[in-house]
# Entry
Amino acid sequence: MNKVIGTGVNRKDGRAKVTGTAIYAAEHQIPGLVHGYLITASIANGEIKSIDISAAEKAPGVIDVFTHKNPPKIFKPANDFMTSKIYEARLPLSDNKVHYGGQIIGLVVADTFEQARDAAHLVKVEYTTQKPLVEAQKANYKEAPPLFGEELKFEKGNTAGLNNATAKIEATYKTATELHAPMEPHAIIAHWQDSNSLTIYEPSQWVMGTQRTYAELFGLPSERVRIVTPFLGGAFGSKAFPWPHGVLAAAAARQIKRPLRVVLSRRQMTANAGHRSQTEQIVRLGAAADGKLTVIDHEVKSSTSPVDVFPEPCTNITPVMYAAPNLRLNQELAIMNVGTPTFMRAPGENPGMWALESAMDELAWQLKLDPVELRLKNEAKEHQRKGLPFSAKHFADCLRVGAEQFGWKDRPKQVRSLTRDGKLVGWGMAAATFPGMRGKATVKARLLPDGTAHILTAGNDMGTGAYTVVAATAAEVLGLPVEQVKVELGDSLLPDGGLAGGSQMTASLVPAVMSACKEVLKTAKAETAQEALNNLRQSGRAAFEATASSAPGDEAKKWAFQSWGAHFCEVSIDEEIGRLKVTRWVSVMDIGKVINAKTAASQVRGGVIMGIGQALMEECHFDPNIGYPVVYDLATYHYPAHADIPRIQVAFVGEPDIKFNPGGARGVGEIGITGVSAAIANAVYHATGKRIRELPITPDKLL
Ligand code: MOS
# Structure
């Protein structure tokens, strides 16, 4: 049998993407398509006193104007993350209230995009305004509710012992409000075939969840709604559920009986498509002289919008990383006049690891211990909140292999002791982690007489490599060259493939693809695809076909599933102008079985790049007086360009996690970003002796 799994297979969707034949949501050609442009609030807190649409209605090409005075008809969905959810619980245009700057307060529909945009600017709105609350330090924090039914707070032992600890760290770490900023803006085409049958072209990380949500919004059975989302131009968590613009577009399209397209501008994406809340975290660590942790105390504050609840779950990582007899976790949440925050690549894990891994570095310096050594010494043997052992843990190998590949043993032990070309140089490291998640997935496999296999599922690929991973798995089980496997994803007409989120698509799909392909061979009474093809041609049938599902059992009652990693980096700093450059990077990950070495490494690199953005550049500020984001495009929201990124060396260690699933794979979409900002801040300390506890590390903080 040919070995495909674990090798470096080229992206199945690569050619389509670079040649422009991959069709994204807004690019679908629908006859009779009309265009919508959103009207958004210019205040951040208050009420609409009057809204005058008379000029807009008379403008050229205008078909209709929707405001809270004539909202299109929609029903509230169940609004549960597990079944059907809109990102923002308040339905668009449901009243005259304005909760945050840029909130959608209307929609103009016209024959062309330009006509709709022009008319939207003719709408006159008068408001009664209250001062918005957009400054985190002025917010009123209360206990955060559980997320997905999981408590974010926890306590074991007694953290009061911190006072008697030999070594002690108590520090506050901050992160900035961050935007997802995917290349493809949020967009939708809503096309009603009749008043009971809807097709939605919208980038979606969760085909069937989105289908259920739109069905509930219009009081339809799910099968009357089709979701088409073969390609996503990046999502990072911001495209798993419908946002208000999508809800409004679908509702308006039904009313005007025309296919309608709405595309968010970059400006609108700052308010209407989610963000990662800023966080403020206090970490207290106590340790004995030998470095053994006695106390870990992690307190988190984040904010949500007035119209939905989303706590950034930073304390999820704390009970898995390091063992301490006394452990306390606490999360608080405040309501601010900002758009609704949501999942963004490693939600919680990312800012949580920034704080914890910075504090661990501070502790290592205080104890005069190698930070790698400190981590090895305190590695948790079980998930301290769940009380379960890890299924397959090779964190120590990540640390050792990373240190070896980076040359960590040559690290000068003093700060400000490395220089190059007149610049300070520093080395830093931090750990990475992300839970192993998996959902139910169903896959159809088909073997055709022309020698190709087709694999079909409504799971999808938001740029992670799912097309390629599915093809590689099928090729291996069937014994076919990977070029002969065709994969179709991202259409609700296909079997439910689960959610592309929580880094779970690979772990969900791989076992289902394996089963479906084995089932095809069984149907063909064959051991290999070659044999099956002979039987198929002799039988005169059109295809051998099988559908199979795979789902988690009760293994999560016995084991905690978690991926691990370590980052090592070098920075160079020109103190005179505050210029920091990341000059070297090594990441070593334990993600169970690596299904495709190329796309897996690419996911880690993407995560590291996004983490470098978070560490050095990304921040969305709000004007304290008017409450509007002061960034509004990809020029004002800075993120890394090629010149900011060094070569990123990625390696994998570990073993297949077969306690987790028969494919042995955990996900790799998110772990790469975790720990990155801490590794950089730790390197900055080594270079300069300056401990930076607030992201991003902009030049002013280095001068
Ligand atoms: Mo991810 S933040 O679960 O798309």
